[in-house]
Amino acid sequence: MLVKTKMNIFLYAIIFICGTMFGSFYTLAVYRIPLGKDITHTRSYCPNCNHKLSFLDMIPIFSYIFLGGKCRYCHKKIRIRYLLLEVLSGVVFTLFAVSIDFNIYNMEISKIIYCICGLLYIAGLFIIAGIDKEKMQIRNGVLLYTIIVEAVYIIYLYVLEKQDIYRYVIYLFVVVILTLINNFYFSKKAKNNYTLQIIILAFLMLTFTYEACTILTITCTILAIAIQLIFTSIAKVKQKKIRVNDTEEYKVPIGFYLCVSNIIMLIITNMQIFYRG
User: Fold this and answer.
1) What is the pTM (predicted TM-score) of this model?
2) Which among 43, 213, 215, 239 could bridge 269 via Cys, Cβ 3.0 to 4.6 Å?
3) Cα-based angle 193, 126, 178 (whole degrees, multiple of 5)
4) Cβ atoms of residues 241 and 121 within 8 Å
5) Interhelix angle for 211-239 vs 254-274, to 10°?
6) Which of 273, 234, 28, 270 lies closest to 134, judged by CA?
7) Domain segments of the chain: what residues?
8) What burial class does residue 171 get, using C-beta atoms within 10 Å of its C-beta: 0-12 exposed, 13-18 middle, 19+ buried?
9) Separation of alpha carbons 277 and 273, rounded Å
10) Can you name the residues that pair with 45 across neighbouring β-strands?
């Protein structure tokens, strides 16, 4: 029993480390993708002095601690958000694995595949949320990545699990049609339709998660947006900065709230399903 407990701790530690590694990649992706820069072949570098980072500079969490939160080369402070995002990613990855009761006692192939696809799906939501929060935009490339992850999982369910996948196929078909409209129709106008991308994102969530989970996600998103608008309005009134017809003041990263809510609801819903009884 003690041996199995230690092995479970080791398993979750590996998942946590994978999460922190993604967290390190996440900051790079959120910065480079909107700029159209390469995220796979170009080495990471310090944003202050542009010096390429060595392997020891990129070890999640430990590099930040050992270097005292400063760049090894220019000695300028590194924003603590990088450390916090690495820790957060590790925690979220671990919580997802725990939520589906993923441990050495039940290492079925179906649970392994779901865990892998689920983590890849969450990784996509993380990047979508980060870019939307920073730039108020949703990148088609990241949406395409999420579509591919979901398509692979649906194929697995049909081929190996022999499950009924009609619901997934219908939702994914809607996603593909809307994505084609967004890419080909709006690309001619040299812009993407943010509202359409939000709809695509919602259908992506319907494709991978449960309907109840998506409904809760949308509900939480609406509440979060309402709260933000209320607090923003109060702050503007106090500062006397409200201007008539000022739409710029009230831009809200809907995709960010959708993704964060969906990750939280997915973990909670999984716990209710896998730990039932």
Assistant:
1) 0.90
2) 213
3) 30
4) no
5) 140
6) 28
7) 1-106, 108-277
8) buried
9) 9
10) 52
